[in-house]
């Protein structure tokens, strides 16, 4: 819906690779718990702003689907926010990622209702909740490396398992910013801000128990944003 596979790979690969590089840098960093700050949960926000079709490219590449209150299936809703949250379970030493879409209903937008308490928040549709390594494999299998510019291309190529890695050009590594998660929001009529919001922290067992069941189980594919 809204984008074909070839166009998504051509125009969506760079943006999705950027998100993965930001997330991967967080996973690779030493945890604050290793420095006697085990009680500190960290949150960092990295923002990317674009149009609604960029969100649809990402949806196609990730083979994701969503539906929120009063909107059509897989709609890139005006004022919505598509996000990735990266979570760390310190006790197990594992990472998982949650993909979601936040969108105010047609009625909330029509009536210009505030979305902060005491008013109702926007609807949240959980798209997937999976181990970070599975998400990473999915992204690397979806993007077209020829459509990723340097120096980011060299950075993501180093993430590919060596037997599958394409030839790599000499280039300095790309540096991302902080702890990561991703979100995209549509700003104004037809405009989508891809808000690469990153929420990273310790995840308790109770959080795992209350996780919303994903609408669509993630799976590795050969399909991808720019």
Could you explain the architecture of this structure?
The chain has 226 residues and is α+β, with helices and mostly antiparallel strands. The chain is built from six helices and eight strands. The chain has helices at residues 5-28, 52-62, 106-110, 132-142, 152-157, 205-209; strands at residues 43-45, 50-51, 81-89, 94-103, 123-131, 181-186, 191-193, 197-199. The strands form two sheets. The protein has a six-stranded antiparallel β-sheet. A two-stranded antiparallel sheet has the order 1-8. Helix 1 crosses helix 2 and helix 1 packs antiparallel against helix 4. The two termini are 18 Å apart.
Q: Which terms would index this structure?
A:
8 strands, 6-stranded antiparallel β-sheet, 6 helices, 226 residues, alpha+beta
Number of helices: 6
Order of strands, main sheet, comes to 2-7-6-3-4-5
Runs with pLDDT <50, length 5+?
32-40, 170-226
Shape: globular
Overall pLDDT level? 73
Helix content: 25-40%
Cα Rg: 17 Å
Can you count the beta strands? 8
Distance between the termini: 18 Å
Structural classification? alpha+beta
H/E topology pattern? HEEHEEHEHHEEEH
Strand content: 15-25%
List the helices and strands and how they pair.
Elements: H1 5-28, E1 43-45, E2 50-51, H2 52-62, E3 81-89, E4 94-103, H3 106-110, E5 123-131, H4 132-142, H5 152-157, E6 181-186, E7 191-193, E8 197-199, H6 205-209
Antiparallel strand pairs: 1-8, 2-7, 3-4, 3-6, 4-5, 6-7
Helix pairs in contact: 1-2, 1-4
């Amino acid at each position: 819906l809204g984008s074909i596979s070839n166009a998504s790979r051509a125009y969506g690969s760079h943006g999705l690779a950027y998100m993965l590089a930001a997330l991967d840098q967080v996973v690779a960093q030493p945890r604050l718990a290793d420095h006697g700050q085990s009680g500190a949960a960290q949150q960092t926000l990295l923002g990317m702003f674009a149009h609604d079709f960029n969100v649809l490219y990402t949806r196609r590449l990730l083979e994701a689907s969503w539906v929120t209150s009063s909107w059509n299936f897989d709609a890139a809703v005006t004022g919505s926010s598509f996000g990735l949250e990266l979570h760390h379970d310190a006790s197990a030493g594992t990472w998982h990622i949650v993909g979601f879409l936040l969108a105010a209903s047609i009625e909330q937008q029509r009536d210009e209702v505030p979305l902060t308490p005491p008013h109702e928040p926007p609807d949240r549709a959980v798209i997937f909740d999976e181990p970070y390594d599975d998400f990473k494999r999915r992204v690397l299998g979806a993007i077209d490396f020829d459509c990723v510019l340097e120096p980011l291309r060299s950075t993501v190529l180093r993430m590919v398992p060596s037997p599958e890695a394409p030839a790599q050009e000499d280039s300095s590594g790309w540096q991302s910013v902080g702890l990561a998660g991703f979100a995209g929001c549509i700003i104004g009529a037809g405009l989508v801000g891809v808000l690469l919001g990153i929420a990273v922290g310790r995840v308790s067992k109770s959080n795992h128990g209350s996780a919303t069941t994903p609408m669509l189980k993630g799976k590795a594919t050969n399909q991808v944003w720019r």
